Amino acid sequence: MLTKFQAFQQHMIGVVGKPNNLFIPEATQRYPLGARFKYGPRTFHYAYCGGVALAAGKLVAGTDMPAEANVTVATTAAIGATEVPNITTTAAEINLDGGMMIVNDNEGEGNSYGIVKSKANAALATSTDVTLADPLAVALVAASSQVELYSSPYYDLDLSAAITDIIIGVPPVVVAIGYYFWVQTWGPAAVLVGATLVAGSLVSPHTTDGSVGPLITVTTETITENVVGYALTAGAATEYNAIFLRITP
After folding, report:
1. Is the residue at 129 inside a domain?
2. pLDDT interval class at 24 (50, 70, 90)
3. Contact 101, 149 (CB under 8 A)
4. How far does CA 187 lie from the centroid of its chain?
C-alpha cells in the first residue's frame, strides 16, 4: 500500500497555500520530497537534511546521485509493468521514493521513469524492488538491460563541498540532521559570499564552505563551475549578500 506521500502523482506536487512549516524544519514528513511552493518571487522545494546539519544561507547539494550506477537488471520486466523486482546490487537502496530510473544500455535504453517507492526484495538480501510511476514502454531483459537509479534530488542534502557540485538550493534557516525543510531554489536569497562580488555578476560555488563566488572559469570551450545565479548587490567575503538564485524555478 502506498503511503499518503507516495500516493501523490508526480506531476501534482505543487503546494497551494503557504505551508505552516515554510521556515520551520520538522522531524515529521508532511509533503512528498520535491513538492514545490511559489512564494512571491521565491520558489521553494520540500527536502530532507541528511547526515550533516545545514546552516542558513549556504549552498547545499545532493549526496545520492546516482544511488546505483550502470546496474545490470537481474529479472526480466515486461512491457506495461510498473513493478521492477531485483533491480539493485544491494538491499539498502530503500530511499528511492520520488527518484528516477534511467535505462542506460541495451533493451529499453534511452527511456526514463519516475520511481514511486522502493523496498528490499523479500527473497534476496542483496537486492531492491522498485515501483514505477508509469508502465515500462520497453521490456527490461535480465542479464542484458542496464539501469541507473537516482534518489530524489531533494533527499539527503549536504553542504556544498566543491565548485562542481550539483547544487540543489539554499536553506533559509538552520536545519538539524534528519529534519525535513523547504529549500529555496529560485529568487532573491541571503547567501554566504566567499570572494568579492560585483553587482550583476554570475555566481557559482566558491570552495568547500557552501559560499558563492564570481564565475571565473569561462572560455569559449568550457565552463567548469555550476552557475547558481547572480549577485543583486556587491558583496565582500564572509558576508551574506542578496543573490538571485536561478537553480530550479
Report:
1. yes
2. very high
3. yes
4. 18
3-class DSSP state of 181:
strand
**pLDDT value at position 224?**
62
Residue ending a domain, among 126, 150, 174, is 150
Q: Any bridge partners for residue 49, and if so which? A: 157
- When pLDDT is averaged across residues 154-175 and rounded to a whole number, the result is 93
- Pairing assessment for the beta strands 112-120 and 128-132 based on DSSP bridges: antiparallel
Look at residue 19 and tell me if it is in a domain.
no
Q: Whole-structure pTM over 0.70, yes or no?
A: yes
Task: Note whether 80 and 187 are same-domain residues.
Answer: no
Query: What's 124's domain CATH number?
Result: 2.40.30
| Average pLDDT taken over every residue of the chain | 88
Task: Tell me the residue range of the domain where 135 lies.
Answer: 68-150
| The domain boundary residue, chosen from 101, 128, 150 | 150
User: Cβ contacts of residue 106 below 8 Å, gap of 6+?
Assistant: 141, 144, 145, 146
Q: Classify residue 42: in a domain, yes or no.
A: yes
The 3-state DSSP composition of the chain as helix, strand, coil percent (nearest 5) reads: 0, 40, 60
- How far does CA 120 lie from the centroid of its chain? 22
Number of domains in the chain: 2
Same domain, 126 and 163: no
What is residue 4's predicted lDDT score, i.e. its pLDDT? 45
pLDDT score, position 163: 82
Residue 151 pLDDT greater than 50, yes or no: yes
